[in-house]
Amino acid sequence: MRLKSFSILASAALVLVGTSLGFAQDEFVVPDSPEDIVAVRQALMKEDGGILRQAGELSGAEAVAAMQTVITNYSHIPALFPEGSIVGDSGALPVIWEDFDAFTAIVDTGTEAAKTAMAAAEAGDGTAYGAALKALGGSCGACHQQFRQPQ
Ligand code: HEC
């Protein structure tokens, strides 16, 4: 199984803004309209969901690439939640902007876990990798519980 290191999200953002603007392939751009912002962050979340589902079976370079994508996606989360950006089928809750520090703190915690998982995969330490994956998954749940509509 091969994971693309270039994330779907980055391509989605590029499609939305148009490649004719001449951005570098890996440069991330937050779209202008709330509709596009919601679409891009939902695509990012879905990509992370797919990665987390299979990450437990990965090791070595594949695991490293998977964690790199999550780290990149997490780095885009704060910018993809500009104040009041709830439109269409967005499942985001307004409380995000009442406590944006708590929101971004969860992003930071998850990023640290993904970095730990990446280092463990590089070192070939499956036990540490599994533990860090669990912590990473915990960050998804912690944020959803507080900041996303119940499913
Ligand atoms: C800091 C907060 C935060 C973190 C961390 C986070 N999410 Fe989310 N997630 C959200 C919010 C808010 C939404 C609703 C976004 C919207 O619909 O506008 C969401 C939506 C989703 C969706 C639904 C996307 C759709 O198509 O509607 C999935 C799947 C998802 N997240 C998976 C994950 C996974 C897997 C992780 C962990 C690797 C994760 N999320 C981490 C806040 C977070």
UniProtKB/TrEMBL annotation:
Pfam families: Cytochrom_C_2
Organism annotation: Devosia rhodophyticola
SUPFAM superfamilies with a match to the protein in the record: Cytochromes
Superkingdom, taxonomy of origin: Bacteria
Entry keywords, A to Z: Signal
Signal peptide stretch: 1-24
Entries under InterPro entries matching the protein: Cyt_c/b562, Cyt_c_II, Cyt_c_prime_subgr
UniProt-recorded name of the protein: Cytochrome c
